[in-house]
């Protein structure tokens, strides 16, 4: 028997969604002997995974909803130039999610969530390095740490809660002054005078190429890639599932829904409601220009991430509520371009591309990974929010352990 052909008794598994999460899951299941079909209606990696900041941030154990949120949220949401924006017309739809988001900011909830985030992030950089080597993409990962820069020590002190939380979870970091910033990143504007350096974090220099290479490795290992839209997922009694696409119907033992922010739409007809809201994020990529930084840099006062890329550099971030169907708001990405020019005054004029993607976000900042209660063979892997790239490889391991070996999973219950 060829090395790439799994034995007949191996389970047949369909993975819906070839973003970084679905791609990592498909490759892991395939490597462990399952018959896997990976289905995406678009080119693999063209969803949210296309344009993220490329940060591998296992140190991100602080959820988005932190104590004190209630006081700051109304002002935050209604400022169109602020880091978080909610168009007033979307408020009624977002309200139930926002109510859970606020509830998640209670100190004891935050502690419990941070613990789970730390578990899901554990050794993420090492696991990505292993994966990148396996798929011939080792050149894409740079382990030069992340630098969070602040205008001054007072601005840094406002984030004290999150830094203390990180310290409690063993995240290694150092405080730096202006001289320390200049020693690491001399291109950063003088208005940043305080910083925190996290040496153990990493970046991916081209998140889109990374997904494409994962998918290529999956196909080389004998996985089947289907470019089609999944219309419905139907129970195939007495056991198994039928995945209905434009190409036809496929019967499988297991289905993994890893369709990012669109996962809820696929599961709703089965009566399953995921607590997902799209946090629309933007990037501007400057091409054909030398990157002004050599590692991932967070402009903490702007809530944005700046990353050197294979061909230039990228500034990414901001949160905009507004659902899956509204067009992108060019003012949000124009704002990012302005922040980049302010922070890196020496950067030459460059070709810019602007992009928006849908982060699949749960109110608790915890991904939904695991079985759907009382639906044997139906699995979910979504809701990774701001950390989908970082958590993709660990998600794939957990889910493969659960599907193939019956191991328990970390996820909140999915009903
Ligand atoms: C601006 C920005 C910056 C970010 N920065 C970082 C970062 O630095 N580090 C980090 O860890 N994370 C970051 N993230 C988050 C990260 O990008 C996401 O969490 C991650 O990409 C989600 O991956 P996914 O595979 O779940 O979803 P996606 O990449 O969206 O993939 C889902 C796939 O499902 C497919 N699909 C949907 N419906 C169907 C259907 N019916 N039939 C077939 N296919 C379907 C889509 O075509 C898509 O390809 C960032 C996000 C944004 C927006």
In this entry the ligands are: flavin-adenine dinucleotide
From the N-terminal CA to the C-terminal CA, the straight-line distance is 41 Å
* CATH topology term: FAD/NAD(P)-binding domain
**Count of spatially separate domains:** 1
Question: Could you give a short account of the major beta sheet?
Answer: 9 strands, mixed
Rg (C-alpha, Å): 21 Å
What is the approximate shape? globular
Helical proportion, percent range: 25-40%
Question: What is the typical, i.e. mean, pLDDT?
Answer: 93
Beta-strand portion reads 25-35%
Secondary structure: elements and pairs:
Elements: E1 12-16, H1 20-31, E2 35-40, E3 55-56, H2 69-78, E4 84-85, H3 91-103, H4 107-121, H5 124-134, E5 141-142, E6 146-150, H6 153-157, H7 160-168, E7 174-177, H8 178-184, E8 194-198, E9 202-204, H9 207-220, E10 224-227, E11 230-235, E12 241-245, E13 248-252, E14 254-257, H10 263-267, E15 277-287, E16 296-299, E17 304-309, E18 312-320, H11 330-343, E19 351-361, E20 368-371, E21 378-382, H12 388-405
Parallel strand pairs: 1-2, 1-14, 2-10, 4-18, 6-16, 14-21
Antiparallel strand pairs: 3-9, 5-9, 6-8, 7-8, 11-12, 12-13, 15-18, 15-19, 16-17, 17-18, 20-21
This protein binds flavin-adenine dinucleotide.
Flavin-adenine dinucleotide is lined by residues 16-22, 39-42, 46-49, 52-55, 57, 229-230, 258-260, 262, 266, 281-283, 305, 316-317, 357, 359-360, 382, 384-390.
Q: Which terms would index this structure?
A:
alpha/beta; binds flavin-adenine dinucleotide; FAD/NAD(P)-binding domain; 415 residues; single chain; 32% helix; nine-stranded mixed beta sheet
């Amino acid at each position: 028997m060829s090395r790439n052909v799994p034995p007949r008794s191996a389970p047949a598994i369909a993975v819906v969604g070839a973003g970084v999460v679905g791609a990592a899951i498909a490759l892991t299941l395939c490597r462990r002997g399952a018959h896997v079909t990976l289905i995406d209606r678009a080119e693999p990696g063209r969803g949210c995974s296309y344009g993220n900041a490329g940060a591998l941030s296992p140190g991100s154990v602080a959820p988005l909803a932190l104590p004190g949120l209630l006081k700051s949220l109304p002002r935050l949401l209604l400022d169109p130039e602020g880091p978080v924006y909610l168009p007033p017309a979307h408020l009624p739809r977002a309200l139930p999610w926002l109510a859970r988001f606020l509830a998640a900011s209670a100190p004891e909830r935050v502690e419990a969530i941070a613990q789970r985030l730390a578990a899901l992030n554990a050794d993420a950089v090492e696991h990505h390095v292993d994966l990148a080597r396996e798929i011939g993409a080792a050149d894409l990962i740079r382990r030069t740490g992340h630098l969070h820069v602040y205008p001054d020590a007072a601005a840094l002190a406002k984030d004290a809660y999150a830094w203390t939380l990180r310290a409690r979870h063993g995240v290694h970091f150092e405080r730096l002054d202006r001289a320390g910033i200049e020693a690491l990143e001399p291109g950063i504007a003088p208005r940043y005078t305080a910083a925190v350096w996290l040496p153990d974090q990493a970046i991916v220099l081209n998140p889109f190429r990374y997904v494409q290479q994962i998918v290529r490795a999956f196909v080389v290992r004998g996985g089947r890639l289907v470019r089609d839209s999944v219309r419905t997922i139907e129970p195939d009694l007495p056991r198994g599932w039928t995945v209905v696409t434009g190409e036809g119907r496929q019967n499988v033992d297991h289905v993994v829904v890893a369709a990012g922010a669109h996962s809820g739409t696929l599961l709703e007809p089965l009566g399953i409601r995921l607590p997902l809201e799209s946090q629309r994020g933007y990037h501007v990529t400057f091409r054909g220009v030398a990157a002004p930084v050599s590692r991932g840099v967070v402009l903490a006062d702007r809530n944005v991430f700046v990353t050197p890329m294979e061909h230039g550099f990228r500034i990414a971030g901001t949160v905009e509520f507004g659902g899956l169907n509204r067009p992108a708001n060019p003012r949000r990405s124009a704002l990012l371009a302005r922040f980049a020019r302010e922070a890196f005054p020496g950067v030459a004029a460059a070709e810019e591309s602007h992009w928006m993607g849908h982060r699949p976000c749960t109110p608790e900042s915890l991904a939904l990974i695991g079985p759907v209660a009382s639906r044997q063979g139906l699995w979910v892997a979504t809701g990774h929010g701001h950390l989908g790239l970082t958590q993709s490889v660990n998600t794939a391991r957990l889910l493969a352990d659960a599907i193939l070996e019956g191991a328990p999973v970390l996820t909140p219950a999915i009903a």
